[in-house]
Amino acid sequence: xxxxxxxxxxxxxxxxxxxxxxxxxxxxxxxxxxxxxxxxxxxxxxxxxxxxxxxxxxxxxxxxxxxxxxxxxxxxxxxxxxxxxxxxxxxxxxxxxxxxxxxxxxxxxxxxxxxxxxxxxxxxxxxxxxxxxxxxxxxxxxxxxxxxxxxxxxxxxxxxxxxxxxxxxxxxxxxxxxxxxxxxxxxxxxxxxxxxxxxxxxxxxxx
Length: 207
Prior knowledge:
By secondary structure, the protein is of the alpha+beta class. It has helices spanning 46-49, 67-80, 90-107, 154-160, and strands at 2-3, 8-9, 35-39, 52-57, 62-66, 111-113, 124-129, 139-143, 147-151, 169-174, 179-184, 192-196, 201-204. Residues 73-102 are annotated as: Disordered.
């Protein structure tokens, strides 16, 4: 994540480092968690879905990252660094440091759409937000497992409030070839365009 006003990265998310606090299961695929594709919502979706980024990973995981939470996490870590010549008081700051670490863990929680939820069993190659119906309501991902997944990801945040276990898989489309690219359209029908490794472009309808 870049801060263009300063010409430097503002936050680096390293998927190669395992994180037990991010809520992600290890990918079903044995491939490294390289970033294969990412998507951000259109401007008119932000009020609904928030400032998020979706990453299609080489290990098959599709991960939703809350950008503002990541920035808050960075600021929290920076605030813990002592100023030059200053020393932390062991007793006085112990509770505040622990509280900040707890907040940091909460901030860093991400939504991982992995194989345990019916996700990809091979590398996820592409990802996009839905343009049809209620914009941004669905996330669509394609993978080397010859499938397209349609995720009703907004249900996760609704069901967290009720402590229920949401079923986020809206639709699974099996293909005969690996998926290279996909996009959605605002139409009510023929609203999903998929290009596979056979160089064939296929149009589907997602309701």
